[in-house]
Amino acid sequence: QVQLVESGGGLVQAGGSLRLSCAASGIFFRINTMGWYRQAPGKQRELVATITSGGSTNYVDSVKGRFTISRDNARNTVYLQMHSLKPEDTAVYYCYRDRSGTQNWGQGTQVTVSS
Fold first, then answer.
1. How many DSSP H helices and E strands does the chain contain?
2. Which of 18, 11, 38 is nearest to 82 (CA)?
3. Which of 113, 114, 89, 112 is nearest to 36 (CA)?
4. Is 95 exposed, middle or buried (CB count within 10 Å of its CB: 0-12, 13-18, 19+)?
5. 3-class secondary-structure state, position 25
6. How far apart are CA 12 and CA 114, in angstroms?
7. Nearest residue to 8 (alpha-carbon basis) of 113, 110, 114, 115
8. 112 neighbors 11 (Cβ within 8 angstroms)
9. Within 10 Å of residue 92's Cβ, how many Cβ atoms?
């Protein structure tokens, strides 16, 4: 059974920081690409960041320089460190894994950034 459990969301003021965590089980973690999606009300789901099994990262332009994705293979956990948060970052953030086209998503964690 594949499980991806996000945590770390919450309410933060603009300019603040949050760190999201995603604990994975039921997969051979270190060979998966991991990443984070987000979806705000009335908007399409957006891929925010990815990190490959080899550690290569990619980000959507709107978060470059503010967000950092990382992974700890010993703990089967992927993180999203978010700084300089803006109200437009408000969304439900979802963890995902991808291995050769097989994908799974977590339940999501709410991030709300107030002005």
1. 0, 11
2. 18
3. 89
4. buried
5. strand
6. 6
7. 110
8. yes
9. 18
3-state secondary structure of 104: strand
| Intra-chain end-to-end CA distance of the chain, in Å | 40
Give pLDDT tens digits along the chain (115 positions).
999 999 999 999 999 999 999 999 998 999 999 999 999 999 999 999 999 999 999 999 999 999 999 999 999 999 999 999 999 999 999 999 999 999 999 999 999 999 9
How many Å apart are CA 115 and CA 99, to the nearest integer?
38
> Which amino acid, 16?
G
CA geometry: angle at 83 spanning 5 and 78, to 5°? 25
CB 104 within 8 A of CB 78: no
Residue 61 CB partners (closer than 8 Å, separation 6+): none
Q: How far apart are CA 23 and CA 1, in angstroms?
A: 13
Q: Strand 109-114 and strand 10-13: pairing?
A: parallel
